[in-house]
Amino acid sequence: MELDKMDENDWKYHGEGNKSLVVSHVQVSQLEDSENPPQIQNIVDFSSNVMSSLLGEKFIHSGEVVKLPLEFVRQLSIKVQHQRPAWRCDKVMDIYSGCALCLPNLTCPALHQPTHTPPLCIEIKPKCGFLPSSKHVSKDIKTKVCRFCMHQHYKVANGKWKSRSLYCPLDLFSGNRQRMHFAIRHLIEEPQNNFKIFKGGQCIYSSKEGSDDSLDLNSLLHHLRPYFMYGNNRINSHMTGKAVLNDFIQNSDLKLFDETRNDDLPPLNTCLSVCPCVCAGSQGLPSDTVLFRILQTQMLDTLDIEGLHPLYRRVEQHLQDFPKERTHHQIDGPYNEAFMEKLQKCPTDDDGSVEYAVAKVHQYRVAMTAKDCSIMVALVLSSQRRLRDFLSSRPPAFSYSVSILDLDPKPFDSIPRQLRLDQRIVSCYLRTGGALPKGSLPPLPGIFTAAEREDCTLLFHPV
């Protein structure tokens, strides 16, 4: 980027989270993530030095910090304001920092040989994939019902969403192809903010928080159909919506869970080796899968928030007595080799020390980042596909790449809030007995028939 020639009209609103607003360049396919200067460097360091080591460097794009002209930031803020969701507009974009994070646009990868069909990209926010087994868990229901499913009841009860998602992270992380397929079905039926589909960099399918707008499955089918028409279906221009969605889900499964070669889609220079299928005697995810790496990082939370909070209080009291120790214990970074050493050399048993408490707090914060990360799967119809392939009965061939993003460090001071939220979620679930409140919408009728749902037998494995 030529910083002295920055023009806000070359950038468009892409989305935003709790701390960042994202815009994408109309041609260069890069993202710019506005943040405060000290925080943004911490994000880069945390991603490149901590999460990259745990999740695999090939999946991570840490980006680089860039300095922007203040006038450009001001004009950009004005330009995107009307495009922002109303419920986000209570937060004001910082127009004085002049600092941003420059990243590749993972929704629209650059190709060596451009094709006539724009790339597809699936974004999945998988959430926590295991049940806690800590002795500190005070409510037995937490060991039987996953956090995501209980949180769904809480969100509907508080009006955040109109209806409950039937997606369960335990299915996606199960290592059983049938359950994984089932999980993606439910994400399509009720995506909320856990599932999006992009085509050529444009979002074509998602939910809007608090919106009454219904999902347009017909529009999604219109977008997807050209990618999955082949053989007689292509000749007759006929393919049922169910068949299109099943092929789409199957390809999503393959790219996330099958062992296959790496496809060269710059800048997503990744390699994925994942579960071919659940074979006899096989349980869980193979150790070389992207989901396994995410799950293992999530499971650094060994104590649950209930067991972690007393250790947080121990650290907090120590820092009140010795404020300068905050830097020594790297509470706010820097996220370097010394931080990783604290993370990895934590004693198994609590010896009552501040060092032990600090290490467990660091582990918990890293685990929370893994629980809140997103997976991007970019799919591109292979440019080497010949005419006879289109006319054959073989399914379409895709090049693909997988990336992990949303890897910001979770603040130390957010732990008490996490405990309060956990208590509210569990209390709500126990109080209602898992029933939805009056006035809420039932789960959507769905894109698959009742008979199809009954065809799925869930297999549960010991953890």
Automatic annotation (TrEMBL):
Its EC number is 2.7.1.158. GO terms for cellular component: nucleus. Belongs to the IPK1 type 2 family. It catalyses: 1D-myo-inositol 1,3,4,5,6-pentakisphosphate + ATP = 1D-myo-inositol hexakisphosphate + ADP + H(+). This is Inositol-pentakisphosphate 2-kinase. GO terms for biological process: inositol phosphate biosynthetic process. The EXKPK motif is conserved in inositol-pentakisphosphate 2-kinases of both family 1 and 2. Keywords: ATP-binding, Kinase, Nucleotide-binding, Transferase. GO terms for molecular function: ATP binding; inositol-1,3,4,5,6-pentakisphosphate 2-kinase activity. It comes from Seriola lalandi dorsalis. It is an enzyme of class 2 (transferase).
